[in-house]
Amino acid sequence: MLKYLPDILAMENGSTVKNEQDWAIRRDEILSLLRREIYGFPPPVLSPGQGRVVETNKKCCAGHAVLETVEITVQTEKGPFQFPMRLFMPTAPGPHPLFLLLNFRPDAYDMYFPAEELIDNGFALAVIYYQDVTSDQKDTWDKLAACFERPKDGTGYGALTLWAYAASRALDYLVTRPEIDQQHMGVIGHSRLGKTALWCGAQDERFRYVYSNDSGCAGAALEKCKHEGAETTRIICGNFPYWFCENYQKYIDHPEKLPFDQHFLLAASCPRFVCVGSASLDAWADPVGEQLSCEAASPIWQALGMEGYIGPKNPAAVGSAYLEGEVGYQLRDGIHFLSRQDWLRYMAFMRKHW
Ligand code: GTR
Asked: Of 34, 133, 158, 254, most Cβ neighbours within 10 A?
């Protein structure tokens, strides 16, 4: 493996992760590190998120699903904050496995999710439009971001952390729905929201499946090992400083000094299941860096008697999918996109590890 990556097994007390007890300690260390140095600490959870169905459409997906609009309420330091969530629930008897998608647009139907295909495969789908939570704009700390005092010591939440936090508050409500199978819930996102999904799943153990689609820099892709055409720490820190905590800026020209790499983010979901998807024409998100990260995260699963990533060490062939291990990887043909093909593989991954 890449020798210059920080050792994921090396605990702060100098010992090596060998079993579940060690891993519980090491996972906390990793989460603290990621919170302190890149994503920021989340706001406190004052009480579980609550939901209220405000609209119901029964003529959805050929009548095979009910589409609800649910208002999610989060208690904050400045009072209740609300955002909407769409919920496609199969009409067939449950309980149903669930995908919770963080999405780019508020529309009920969207190019990034094949609602009917998911429903016909027996999945429930919850969708949050991320900018209902907080705007994706520099120096605009609005909506949920305006509801808490952001710590000024460099570790205060970035926007990714707030979007992830909101997904967890929506999950607080979703687990109260008897139609949902709580053993089979996954969080998923594309691109910046793929970074968010990884970060959400890393922290929230109720998600048994964590999916990253084309998440790239500061997502699944390694920062210390970039390939041609890939986004760098300098570019992402310069363009999107507000996605992260301020401490991340310390590394803008020195990713080699980061005390972690992105395989730590994947590993934080161990012993659960992580599936990383790349696209062949998406050099910006660094497919090879994403695949290497899956391999680099795997020693944690192996220390616990599992396998992690089971796939080639050389760059994967276009169109291939390696879904056998607890860490899946797939390389779809085509551009930066969350496609039907990606979803078919993500459904297969969940089924395989049922
Ligand atoms: C790009 C950004 C990427 C990725 C992408 C997206 O501009 O550089 O890291 O997050 O946006 O979210 O579409």
From this structure: 133
Tokens 């705007």 locate to 135
The residue whose CA is least distant from atom 8 of ligand 1 is: 236
Q: What is the percent of the chain with per-residue pLDDT over 90, rounded to a whole number?
A: 99
Using alpha carbons, select from 30, 73, 25 the residue that is nearest to residue 51.
73
The predicted model gives 291-319 an average pLDDT of 98
336 Cα nearest atom in ligand 1:
13
Q: What single-letter DSSP state applies at residue 47?
A: S
Ligand 1: lining residues by beta carbon, under 6 Å: 191-192, 216-217, 231, 236
Give, for ligand 1, the residue of 191, 212, 265 to mutate: max count of ligand atoms closer than 8 Å to Cβ. Answer: 191
Tens-place pLDDT, residues 106-128: 999 999 999 999 999 999 999 99
Three-class SS of residue 234? helix
What is the distance in A from the centroid of ligand 1 to the CA of 28?
A: 28
**pLDDT computed for residue 4 by the predictor:** 85
Confidence (pTM):
0.98
Question: Alpha-carbon distance 191 to 216, whole Å?
Answer: 7
d(CA 40, CA 20): 26
Strand partners, 276: 212, 329
